[in-house]
């Protein structure tokens, strides 16, 4: 971005009256994409003096967090990345404790991560983070400390105390000239919040002010290590819309391609698909002979930054997922002359075609297909990506029976959503009949939204129909949902077990709160009879309509024969 996030920083620390300084701290400002996708991180940690190795604990957590946080997927949110890293660090510290040195490595931890126009806070213990804005000071963290008397207290939460940790997380918007102050208890236990505000608000170099905070705490009789960090927001990323458009269209849209045309060393074999939004060509790499697909944007949107942004995001997301059940998006080997990206060529059928060719499918084959789709979706969800347009046309069945999820054009990446942009990011609704109702009601989607789409697909593969028919075409709101009824799959396919129908019904419930919490639960119920679905058995006409009408016919024949017998008697 032309206007990147910029900060001024100052840090100061002193052992005070103690022989050793058990506090650790640091700030990392990465460059390039890491600055945009992961942000600037500042950490302060205070090793617990009563444990055997306080300095080692605080140093390990600070260094470990800086190293591991920037190695987490760029698609993850700050909260997810931070929590995963801290959980691992906590497990390591806790595991270092022995019978001889119980709770040997314990430390507080407070981190500020500045990403785009937001400050993300991760906190455990009694170190503090303050924000000074417009002359007012506000403590942004809570002290995890329990007081027994005025003199006696103990940490209720810290890293290394227990196998499980409870981390406080919050986020606050940034404004230019915001000042954040991070302190260990050796400072804020001896000087008040207002004293901190008064010192930091002075017109002097930040390093001078940081040293003054430390010296003031020592003057007030602090008998602990004293450490502080001061961070001033100098500039926020504020790219203008026209700058974004210029960046997105730095390469021209390609022309219509035809067989035998060459583009950047790729020979066009044929066009496979053309729609109002994109074109798909089969191409051959003239250097390697590899067959691939080239996806190009539609010239209908060459002046639409939102469309171009989504086109780029599809490639960005695809190159970051490596899962056997999701199509491969290739790294570009040569410099591009226009806008396109390359994806895996998959020989086989779409699931929509497979459904037409298999009107009475084997249930084991169906559950195997669904299991592979689940595996692919888990790969996306582990990276905090939602597919949002799952449907039979976006699933390929290869000749060997393996399954691939394709088309990431509607994918939503949680980590990218944290980055502010002047380009409008539209909430795509996916495809009618497969879209989760919460999207239609303006509610943000979750993993359960992709689960709904998968449930609809499962129903369709088994029956050739949709669970709500054309009812889902209506305008859906919380009031009208109760009027839309699920049609039992048994009405279309009497060979489906009752418990299997129950599993599908739970997966496609219109209220997302009533669906399965995980794909593993859904898959288990698809392959193992769940007794709870057998208790409220459907009437025979719905459970097995063939047997029902055969029974009715038999009874009527008997009654007619009996009536005839009485008349002839």
CATH architecture descriptor of the largest domain: 4-Layer Sandwich
According to DSSP, the number of beta strands is: 22
CATH homologous superfamily descriptor of the largest domain: PPM-type phosphatase domain
Overall helicity:
25-40%
Broad shape: globular
CATH fold topology of the largest domain? Phosphatase 2c, domain 1
**First CA to last CA: what distance?**
99 Å
Summarize the structure.
By secondary structure, this protein is α+β, with helices and mostly antiparallel strands. It is 34% helix and 21% strand.
Explain how this protein is built:
The protein has helices at residues 33-37, 54-69, 78-96, 185-188, 193-200, 206-219, 241-248, 305-318, 351-357, 363-382, 414-417, 437-440, 447-463, 498-507, 519-527, 532-535, 540-543, 545-568; strands at residues 6-14, 23-28, 40-46, 109-115, 118-124, 128-133, 136-139, 145-147, 153-155, 168-173, 179-183, 226-235, 262-263, 266-274, 278-285, 291-297, 341-344, 348-350, 385-386, 395-398, 403-405, 412-413. The chain is an alpha+beta fold and 569 residues long. It has three domains: 6-238, PPM-type phosphatase domain (Phosphatase 2c, domain 1), CATH 3.60.40.10; 242-344, Phosphorylase Kinase, domain 1, CATH 3.30.200.20; 348-538, Transferase(Phosphotransferase) domain 1 (Transferase(Phosphotransferase), domain 1, Orthogonal Bundle). A five-stranded antiparallel sheet has the order 1-12-11-6-7. It has a five-stranded antiparallel sheet with strand order 2-3-4-5-10.
């Amino acid at each position: 971005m032309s206007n990147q996030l910029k900060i001024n920083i100052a840090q100061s620390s002193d052992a005070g009256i103690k022989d050793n300084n058990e506090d650790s701290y640091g700030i990392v400002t990465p460059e390039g994409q890491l600055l945009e996708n992961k942000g600037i991180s500042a950490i302060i940690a205070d090793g617990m003096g009563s444990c055997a190795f306080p300095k080692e604990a605080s140093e390990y957590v600070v260094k470990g967090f800086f190293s591991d946080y920037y190695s987490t997927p760029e698609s993850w949110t700050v909260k997810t990345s931070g929590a995963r890293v801290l959980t691992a660090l906590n497990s390591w510290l806790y595991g270092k404790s022995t019978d001889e040195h119980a709770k040997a490595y314990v430390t507080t931890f407070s981190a500020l991560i500045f990403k785009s126009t937001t400050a993300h806070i991760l906190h455990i213990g009694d170190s503090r983070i303050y924000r000074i804005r417009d002359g007012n000071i506000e403590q942004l963290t809570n002290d995890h400390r329990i007081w027994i008397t005025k003199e006696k207290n103990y940490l209720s939460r810290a890293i290394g105390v227990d196998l499980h940790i409870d981390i406080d997380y919050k986020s606050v918007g940034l404004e230019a000239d915001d000042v954040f102050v991070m302190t260990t208890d050796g400072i804020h236990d001896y000087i008040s919040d207002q004293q901190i505000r008064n010192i930091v608000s002075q017109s002097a170099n930040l390093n001078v002010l940081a040293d003054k905070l430390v010296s003031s705490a020592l003057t007030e009789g602090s008998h602990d290590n004293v450490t502080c960090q001061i961070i001033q927001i100098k500039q926020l990323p504020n790219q203008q819309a026209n700058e974004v458009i210029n960046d997105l269209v730095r390469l021209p849209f390609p022309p219509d391609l035809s067989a035998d045309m060459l583009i950047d060393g790729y020979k066009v074999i044929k066009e496979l698909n053309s729609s109002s939004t994109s074109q798909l060509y089969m191409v051959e790499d003239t250097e390697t002979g590899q067959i691939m697909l080239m996806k190009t944007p539609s010239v209908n949107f060459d002046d639409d930054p939102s469309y171009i942004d989504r086109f780029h995001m599809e490639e960005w997301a695809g190159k970051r997922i490596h899962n056997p059940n999701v199509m491969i998006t290739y790294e570009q080997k040569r410099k591009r002359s226009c806008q396109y990206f390359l994806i895996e060529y998959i020989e086989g059928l779409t699931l929509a075609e497979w459904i037409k060719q298999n009107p009475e499918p084997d249930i084991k084959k169906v559950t195997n297909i669904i299991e592979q789709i689940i595996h692919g979706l888990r790969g996306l969800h582990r990276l905090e990506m939602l597919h949002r347009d799952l449907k039979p046309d976006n699933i390929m069945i290869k000749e060997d029976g393996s399954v691939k999820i394709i088309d990431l054009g509607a994918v939503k990446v949680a980590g990218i959503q944290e980055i502010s942009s002047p380009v409008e990011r539209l909430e795509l609704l996916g495809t009618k009949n497969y879209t989760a109702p919460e999207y239609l009601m303006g509610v943000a989607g979750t993993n359960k939204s992709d689960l709904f789409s998968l449930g609809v697909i499962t129903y369709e593969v088994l029956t050739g129909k949709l669970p709500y028919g054309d009812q889902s075409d209506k305008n859906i709101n919380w009031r009208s949902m109760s009027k839309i009824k699920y049609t039992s799959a048994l009405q279309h396919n009497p060979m489906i077990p009752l418990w299997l129908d129950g599993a599908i019904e739970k997966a496609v419930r219109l209220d997302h709160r009533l669906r399965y919490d995980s794909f593993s639960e859904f898959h288990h119920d698809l392959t193992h009879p769940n007794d709870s679905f057998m208790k409220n058995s459907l009437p025979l006409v719905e459970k097995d309509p063939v047997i029902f009408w055969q029974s009715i016919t038999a009874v009527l024949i008997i009654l007619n024969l009996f009536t005839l017998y009485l008349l002839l008697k």
